[in-house]
Amino acid sequence: MAKTNEPADIEVRGAKGGKKRRYTKYTRTHLKLRNLRFFIMWAALVALLVVGMIRIHAYFDRCLTELEAMQYTYVADEMAKIFTEKRFDELFEYETCDAEYLETRQDYVEYLNKLAGDAVIEYTQTSSVNPREKRYLVTADGKAFAEFTLKETGKEYTYEIIPLIGYTDGDKYYEPGDIYINILQPVVYDYIIPSNATISVNGQTLGEEHAVGQDEELFFEGHLYKGVEGYKLRSYRFTCALGEPEVVVTGADGSDLTGVLQEVGQDTWKYEFAYQDEELKPMFENPAVEFVKQWCLFSTHNTKRANVTSLTLEGSSAYTFIQNYENTWITTADKYEFQNISTSNYAMIGDKVLTCEVFINYHTTSKKKVNDYPTRCRLYVVNTGKNWRVYDFELLSTTEQD
Q1: Rounded distance, CA 248 to CA 193, Å?
Q2: Beta bridge partners of 179
Q3: Among 2, 227, 239, 255, which has the minimal tally of Cβ within 10 Å of its Cβ?
Q4: How many angstroms separate the CA atoms of 145 and 120, rounded?
Q5: Do 27 and 5 form a contact (C-beta atoms < 8 A)?
Q6: Where are the alpha helices (DSSP H) in 70-151?
Q7: How many CB atoms lie within 10 A of CB 400?
Q8: Pair 201, 245: CB distance under 8 Å
Q9: What is the mean pLDDT of the segment spanning 8-25?
Q10: pLDDT, tens only, 274-328
């Protein structure tokens, strides 16, 4: 009988003659194929499970890696390295983006290195009034040194804790914010000096970029002789943060004007016109007083107009004013006396114009009536080459000088 690979049915009867059961008898080849299919299915199932686990692991690993990378603590660490590693040159760039300090980068770095020294730099998070930022305090050996902030970028990172379930988690992205140097005290300085003078701060000469506003005329505006250039005051403004700066103001003639600057406000100095009373008063006091005396006498009909105009420059403002002055309404003085005579505020403008102030209390008696005429004038006198002549004058406040 020929052999076959087909299974043979075999009837088996129970020992007590019970119901017959049929079993299929498999060949060895058939059993091998059946076992192979089992192992293939088992291997496929294991492979699917391994691939799934790998994908799940990769998903969570990617999420956690990105979540770890975007933690604000890392941003804070990077900002803090500017201080902990004492990279103060970078800090200079960061600080001067909003405020221009007159100190150089080298000055800035040397100053911070000197203050930091060998101190241990640490930083800790502190509270912030702005909910959209995180604030940190930097200390040097426990003492306040600086502060910096992180600010929200407006972006958020979100991921699913359990995929396909919908349960998510995430955080906000942060970026470097502001830096505040507690040990630096930026101060804005204002210096008002003659427009023809120069000002240098810590060895740097200031230019037009530090000038503010319009030039200010001094008291003699509109009273200068033709061709004579007077002084104007120019305002300079600058910021320093490394302590009190070294400021030097040099006049057009090379003289040091720093000593005549007056502090007129908080961190504001102004040039006060340098009068030359000691030098000029001995030479010009008598002629100046004589002119004002003649003017007073003329105003009360006690001298001729010509006696006054003879002391002025013909054709000048002073000459024209006196020629047109009407004094008929004043009573002639029967008696007169010059009291409390004083001169002050002498100044030479250029090499040919002199200005000074004269005060005289002109005391008169007219028809038994006593009168006082306090008179204060500022005279402008020009050198004609032969002599000095008044070419302009101002009648100032009639309050007697102290």
Answers
A1: 11
A2: 148
A3: 2
A4: 11
A5: yes
A6: 72-84, 88-95, 105-116
A7: 15
A8: yes
A9: 53
A10: 788 999 999 999 999 999 999 999 988 899 999 999 999 999 999 999 999 887 6
- What is the C-alpha separation between 56 and 84, in angstroms, rounded? 40
Residue 276 exposed, middle or buried by CB count within 10 Å (0-12, 13-18, 19+): middle
From CA 80, how far away is CA 125, in angstroms rounded? 11
Q: What is the pTM of this model?
A: 0.56
Token pair recorded at residue 346 = 């002498």
Question: Is the separation of the CB atoms in 121 and 154 below 8 Å?
Answer: no
8 A C-beta contact, residue 390 and residue 381 = yes
HSE of 4 in the Cβ direction (CA atoms, 13 Å)? 6
* DSSP structure string for 213-272: EEEEE-TTTT-PPTT----EEEEEEEEE-SSS--EEEE-TTS-B-GGGEEEEETTEEEEP
Residues in the chain, overall count: 402
Could you tell me the two tokens for 147?
């502060």
Helix axes 105-116, 88-95, angle to 10 degrees: 120
Closest-CA residue to 80 (of 153, 132, 182, 149): 149
Max Cα separation, the chain? 180
